[in-house]
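Here is the promised in-class demo. Please do not try to memorize the tokens; focus on the logic of going from shape to residues.
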């Protein structure tokens, strides 16, 4: 009686049709990945989204750019034709980031739906296909590095999976229904992904498995329906052979793509393989990050929003759907082909990545991270895990298995949502800086009010700071300079005469941003017309003097204009990352007169406006510029601290004289007075201490915090 009632509930809930499966997959897909809509462009997506600016920079058009990019990849040994015919028009015509992110979610949805169609026809078991498809939502995790969902780029691997599984489905359908048209469409889709990204070759052995097992020597009709696929594979391999052995050696004038290099060190291959395979498992991002000590256990309860009622409901519904479909699945119906497909999908991408030029990147990132093809591995693991559960179910007759599975899936789903929050919470500043960058060109009182042929000084920090984005926003080319020698912008001497200690440029503007990290839309844009630039001896500005400062208030969407005070804009630039919101900015903190800059072996400033520091990696110096025509008695104060229990030492030298020495293993305060002559003054801070050995490439020796230079 109980069993009959249970079966009726299951049949009512799961009516074996595509509409129900599509609804379930779309519901969980959009419920779990709406977080992407709030995310900025990450990785290659950020640069692809600036295609309109790249076209302006290179004075070309969209079609020429697509062909140039495709041929450019050919010259590096990689075949990537079809992808750019899709991705460049997409970003060129759609400027709204939210629409792009929604399309990205749709791509994930169609990749899972295509997978469901393939598994359903390959297994002849609707419930196995559904449980395997829904299990993928327990595996997909957003990661900070080279993530195929969050964006690097976000469309490529899901698109390959979508067309790859759809091609497999159509191929099997053509064999079963004896329709050559299905096979032709299948071969076209397959060839499309083969020339999209080289990792697509993993679908070749999967096709061959189904070809070999379905081909009957006495019935050559199966060969006839397989010919389009075999021809597509043959054409691809011939092109690849010609590319590798004839085209590249003769015509290539570029450096080969490092990802295509083959590494043969067995130890490194095995190490990278372990990391890439580990990333296939549920909760691998959180567990791996804990193993690598990149996040701590307290991160799990720092943000309890993952326990919001709607997240709990989604997790319960997902667990309920998977458990019901697993209950109806029979392991006896699962063919060896499907198990072999699972193994191929898991191991072939991992092996290819482990021997490739990405090996070093994977090893350096460590457990919890992965490279792009992990998305393909998710599908293989979902097949394998559902198959093992159904096997276990057939051997264990106890009714407690499904309740345990239900609880386990619910917990994993909730923790996966937490994992995605952890991976994305530090990306908020990218979205805010992106929005502020748009306002710079959009607001009537900022750059839109400036005369033509202006030059802009900008530091390069984020992908959307790239020059293409500026050209795209202004819809024309204009000169952008940076005093950072590693910046993609032009060097400072293209905008300012750096041969003079004090330069008076024409129509030169500088911009900086303050990003509200508290998510209250309380950031700021600082824009100034520069009257004077004062350089040190290495063409690096000590001060940038302005009497025309515009400050955009993000909260009020208004602009304040300051013309009655002389401001040193370099003070704003060096402190822009320290402001937590618009209210932290005080105009009097940035007056010209006495300016200073830390140069030498110092790293980027970190922290907040009231408590900031910089890691020091060797001898460094404080350059002080006295704009007055008289000597000024100044008071210098800062703190030094050791990153470990080891004792460190510093020696403060001015004008060849040792002013102060300090030995410290914890926080120590340093203060002294000195007389600053008009113009430039140099204070050296030397150290004999060795770097702290913690694996940091910056070779940190000690920290220097809260530097204050003031009139005594």
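The designed amino acids, position by position:
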């Amino acid at each position: 009686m109980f069993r009959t009632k249970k079966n009726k509930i299951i049949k009512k809930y799961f009516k074996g049709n595509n509409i129900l499966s599509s609804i379930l997959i779309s519901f969980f897909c959009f419920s779990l990945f709406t977080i992407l809509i709030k995310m900025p462009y990450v990785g290659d997506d950020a640069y692809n989204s600036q295609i309109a600016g790249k076209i302006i920079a290179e004075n070309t058009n969209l079609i020429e750019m697509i062909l140039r990019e495709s041929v450019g990849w050919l010259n590096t040994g990689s075949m990537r034709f079809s992808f750019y015919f899709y991705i460049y028009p997409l970003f060129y015509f759609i400027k709204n980031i939210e629409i792009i992110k929604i399309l990205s979610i749709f791509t994930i949805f169609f990749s899972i739906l295509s997978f469901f169609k393939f598994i359903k026809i390959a297994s002849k078991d609707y419930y196995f296909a559904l449980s395997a498809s829904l299990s993928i939502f327990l595996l997909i995790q957003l990661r900070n590095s080279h993530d195929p969902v969050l964006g690097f780029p976000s469309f490529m691997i899901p698109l390959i999976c979508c067309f790859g599984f759809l091609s497999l489905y159509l191929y099997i359908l053509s064999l079963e229904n004896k329709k050559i048209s299905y096979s032709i469409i299948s071969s076209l889709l397959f060839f499309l992904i083969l020339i999209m990204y080289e990792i697509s070759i993993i679908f070749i052995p999967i096709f061959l498995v189904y070809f070999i097992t379905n081909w009957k020597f006495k019935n050559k009709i199966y060969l006839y329906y397989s010919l389009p696929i075999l021809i597509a594979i043959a054409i691809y391999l011939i092109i690849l052979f010609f590319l590798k052995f004839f085209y590249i050696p003769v015509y290539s004038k570029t450096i080969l793509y490092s990802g295509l290099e083959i590494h043969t060190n067995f130890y490194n291959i095995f190490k990278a393989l372990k990391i890439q395979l580990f990333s296939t498992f549920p909760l691998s991002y959180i567990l791996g990050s804990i193993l690598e000590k990149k996040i701590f256990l307290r991160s799990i309860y720092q943000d309890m929003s993952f326990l919001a009622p709607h997240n709990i409901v989604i997790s319960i519904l997902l667990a309920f759907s998977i458990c019901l479909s697993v209950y109806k699945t029979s392991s006896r119906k699962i063919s060896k082909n499907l198990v072999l497909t699972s193994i191929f999908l898991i191991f072939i991408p991992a092996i290819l990545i482990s021997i490739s030029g990405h090996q070093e990147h994977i090893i350096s990132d460590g457990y919890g991270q992965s490279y792009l093809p992990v998305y393909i591995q998710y599908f293989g693991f979902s097949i394998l895990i559902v198959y093992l559960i159904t096997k276990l179910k057939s051997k264990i007759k106890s009714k407690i298995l499904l309740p345990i599975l239900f609880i386990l899936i619910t917990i994993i789903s909730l923790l996966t949502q937490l994992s995605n929050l952890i991976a994305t919470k530090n990306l908020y500043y990218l979205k805010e800086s992106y929005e502020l960058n748009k306002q710079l060109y959009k607001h009537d009182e900022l750059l839109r009010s400036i005369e033509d042929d202006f030059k802009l000084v900008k530091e390069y920090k984020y992908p959307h700071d790239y020059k293409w984005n500026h050209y795209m926003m202004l819809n024309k080319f204009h000169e952008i300079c940076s005093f950072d020698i590693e910046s993609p912008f032009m060097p400072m001497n293209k905008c300012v005469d750096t041969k003079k200690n004090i330069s008076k440029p024409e129509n030169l503007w500088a911009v900086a941003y303050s990003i509200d990290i508290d998510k209250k839309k309380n950031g700021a844009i600082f824009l100034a017309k520069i009257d004077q630039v004062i350089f040190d001896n290495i063409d690096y500005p000590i001060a940038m003097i302005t009497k025309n400062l515009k400050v955009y208030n993000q909260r009020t969407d208004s602009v304040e204009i300051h013309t009655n005070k002389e401001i040193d804009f370099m003070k704003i630039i060096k402190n822009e990352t320290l402001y937590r919101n618009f209210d932290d900015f005080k105009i009097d903190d940035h007056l010209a007169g006495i300016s200073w800059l830390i140069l030498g072996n110092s790293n980027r400033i970190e922290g907040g406006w009231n408590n900031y520091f910089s890691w020091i990696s060797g001898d460094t110096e404080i350059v002080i510029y006295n704009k007055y025509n008289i000597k000024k008695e100044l008071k210098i104060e800062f703190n030094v601290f050791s990153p470990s229990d080891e004792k460190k030492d510093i020696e403060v030298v001015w004008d060849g004289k040792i002013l102060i020495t300090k030995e410290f293993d914890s926080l120590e305060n340093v203060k002294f007075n000195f007389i600053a002559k008009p113009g430039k003054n140099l204070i050296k801070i030397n150290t004999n201490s060795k770097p702290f050995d913690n694996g940091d490439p910056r070779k940190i020796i000690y920290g220097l915090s809260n530097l204050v230079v003031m009139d005594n």
